[in-house]
Amino acid sequence: MNDTSKATVTRERLRGASALLCALTFVLAGIAAPPAHAKRATCAGEKATIEKGGGNDKIKGSNKDDVIVTGEGNDNVEGGGGDDLICGGSGTDNLLGGPGHDKVFGEGEGDDIIGGDGKDTLKGGDSFDNLVGEADNDKMSGGPGVDHLYGGEGNDRLDGNDGDDTLVGEEKTDKLTGKDGNDVLLGGAGNDRLSGERGFDLVFGGASNDTLFGGQEDDRLFGGTDNDEIISGPGNDVVIGDGGSDKIEGLAGNDVLIGGGVNDKILGGAGNDQVFGSNGRDSVDGEAGNDIVLGQDNDDMVSGGPGNDTLDAGKDEDVCNGGAGVDTDVGRERCERRTDIELVAPVALPAPFGTCGGRPVTIVGTAGNDRIDGTAFKDVISGLAGNDVIEGNGEEDIICAGPGADSASGGRGPDRVMGDDGDDNVAGGDSNDTVIGGPGDDAVLGEDAADKVFGGDGNDVLTGDNGADGMGGGLGDDILVGDEDDDKLAGDPGGDQLIAGGGSDTGLGGPGSDVVYGGSGNDDIFGGEDGDEMLGASGKDKIKADEADDELFGGADRDSCNGGGGSSDLDFECEKTKGIP
Q: Most exposed: 3, 49, 110, 416, by fewest CB within 10 Å?
C-alpha cells in the first residue's frame, strides 16, 4: 500500500470515529448521570459513624469513639464507652452519652440529654430541654427555650442562655450563669459562683462559701449557710445573707438587704434601701439615699450615709453615724456613740387595737409606711395598710403585716409571721416558726430550726433553710427550696419547682406540671397529677409518678422508679423500675 492509500484509510477511520463519538454523545445526552455517593452527615464537624433517618430509632454505640447522628423521629440513643459525639435530630430525643468524655447536642422538639460518667459537654436545642451532667466536671448550656440544667457531682459550668431556665449545681465548686430570661439558680454544696445576669432571677447559694451576683433587673438572692459575698445589681433587689459572716452590697436600686448570720458587712448602695443586720457584730451602711438601717443585737456599727436616714442600732454598745442629711435615731436603746444624728423620742407603743392570730394586738401601725420594732417580750403586732418594716425581736411573737408590700421578721423565739395582700418578704428567725406569705408574689423564709413555711395565693418563693421544715406552696406557680436537713415539700396546685437540697426529703408536686428535684440524701419524690419531671440526684431515692406522661431521672446510687402507667415515662439511671413502658 502506497502513502496515498494509507492516508485515505486513516481519514476514513477518523471519520468513522468522529461519527461514533457524535452518536454516543447524542445517546448519552438523554441518559441521566449515575447518582453520586450520598454525603454522610456530620456532628460537630465530624463525619457520622452511626446515622439514622426518619422513624423512632433505638441506637446503641460501641466502646469506641462514636459519632452518632439521629434523624427526624423520636430517638433513644446510648453512646456506650468511648469519647462520643452525639447529635439529636428534629424529634423529641433521649440522648445518653455514657462512660467517657462525651459531647451531646440536642436539636429538636425538646430533648433529655444525660452525660453519664466522664467530663461531658451538653448543649440544648431550640425547645424545652433537660440536661443532666452526673459525674465529673461537665459543661452545659441551654438553648433559646426553657431549659433545666443539673450539674451533678463534679465542678460544673452551667449556662442558661436564652429562656427562663433552672440551673442546679449540686456537688463541689460550680459556676452557674443564667444569662437572658427569668432564671432560677441553686449552687448546692461547694464554693459556687452564681450570676443571674439579665431578667428577674432567683439565686440560691446553698452550703459553703458562695459568690452571688444578681444582674440587671429586680432579683432575689439567698446566700445560704457559711460565708457568702452577694452583689445584687442595679435593680430593686431582695437579699438575704442567711448563715455565716456575709458581705452584701446593694449597688443601685431600692433594695431590702438582710444579713441573717453573724458579723455581717452590708452596704446599701444608691437608692432608698432597707438594711438589716443580724445578731452578730455587724457593720451596716445605707450609703446614698433615704435609708432605714437596723443593727439588731450585739455591738454594731450603723451608718446612714448621704440622705435622710432612719437608724435603729438595736441592743448593746453600738456606734452610729448618720452621715450627710437629716438623720433620726428611733431605737429604744440609744447608740452608745452618735455622729450627725437627731434624737427623737423612742417610738411609743399604741393602745391595743384588734386581734392578730386570735390574740389582742399590743403594737399597731398606721395606714402609712411604718417601721415597727417589737419588745423583748411576747408581742402581737399589726402593721395595718402600707409598706411596713416589722421586727418581732424578742420572744414568741405574732405578726400580721397587713395589706401592702411588707418586710417582716419574727427574730428570736417561736414566732408566727403572716404577710397578707401584697408582695411581701417574710421570715421566721431563730426558732421553730410558722411563716405565711398570703396573697401576692411573696418571698417566704423559715431560717433556723424546724419551720412551717406556706406561700398562699400567688407565685411565691419559699426557702426552708436550716432545720427539718414543712413547706406548702399554695395556689400559683411556686418555687420551694428545702435546703438542709429532712424537709417535706408540697407544691400544691400550679406548675411548681421543688428543690429539696440536703437531707432525706419528701417532695410532692401536686396538681400541675411540676419539677421535683431531690438533691443529696435518700429522698421520696412524687410528681402528683399531670405531666411532671422528677430527678432523684444523689442518694437512694424512691420516685413515683401518676398516670400522666412523666419523666423520671434516678441519678447516682441505687434508685427505685415507679412510672404509674403513663405512656411516656422514662427511667434514666433507675436501677429498679415498675410501670414504665
A: 3
419, pLDDT greater than 70 = yes
What distance in Å separates the CA atoms of residue 292 and residue 23, rounded to the nearest whole number? 99
Q: Please answer whether residues 326 and 345 qualify as being in contact, where contact means their C-beta atoms are separated by less than 8 angstroms.
A: no
- Condensed to tens digits (0 to 9), the pLDDT of residues 275-331 reads 888 777 788 888 888 888 887 776 777 877 788 878 776 666 666 776 776 556 655
Other residues' Cβ atoms within 10 Å of the Cβ of residue 172:
18
- Whole-structure pTM over 0.70, yes or no? yes
Cell of 305: 450615709
- Total residues belonging to the chain: 581
Convert the pLDDT of each residue in 454-513 to its tens digit: 998 999 998 887 788 899 988 999 998 887 788 898 888 888 888 887 788 888 888 888
Cβ atoms of residues 535 and 132 within 8 Å? yes
Cα 152 from Cα 382, distance rounded (Å): 45
In SS3 terms, 122-155 reads as: EECCCCCCEEECCCCCCEEECCCCCCEEECCCCC
Biggest distance spanned by C-alpha atoms of the chain: 143
Residue 33: pLDDT over 50: no
Structure-block grid coordinates of residue 504: 432525706
DSSP 65-94: --EEE--SS--EEE--SS--EEE--SS--E
Residues 172, 156: Cα–Cα separation, whole Å? 8
Q: Give the residue-averaged pLDDT of 36-57.
A: 82
Per-residue pLDDT, 135: 79
- Measured CA to CA, the distance from residue 317 to residue 350 in angstroms comes to 27
| Cα distance between residue 118 and residue 70, in whole Å | 22
Pairing of the two strands 121-123 and 103-105: parallel
State the pLDDT confidence band at 22, using cuts at 50, 70 and 90: very low
* Cβ pair 179, 159 in contact under 8 A: yes
Q: Which residue has the cell 418563693?
A: 461
Cβ density class 281-292: b for 16+ within 10 Å, e for less: bbbbbbbbbbbb
CB atoms within 10 A of CB 516: 29
What is the pLDDT averaged over residues 423-444?
A: 90
- Alpha carbons 206 and 290: distance in angstroms, whole number: 32
What pLDDT, on the 0 to 100 scale, is given for residue 20? 36
Rounded to 10 degrees, what is the CA torsion of 339, 345, 347, 349?
A: 160
Instruction: Tell me the C-alpha distance between 473 and 254, whole Å.
Output: 27
User: What is the identity of the amino acid at 273?
Assistant: D
Residues 320/337, Cβ–Cβ less than 8 Å: yes
| Cell matching residue 165 | 431556665
Q: Smallest Cα–Cα separation from 482: which of 460, 511, 504?
A: 504
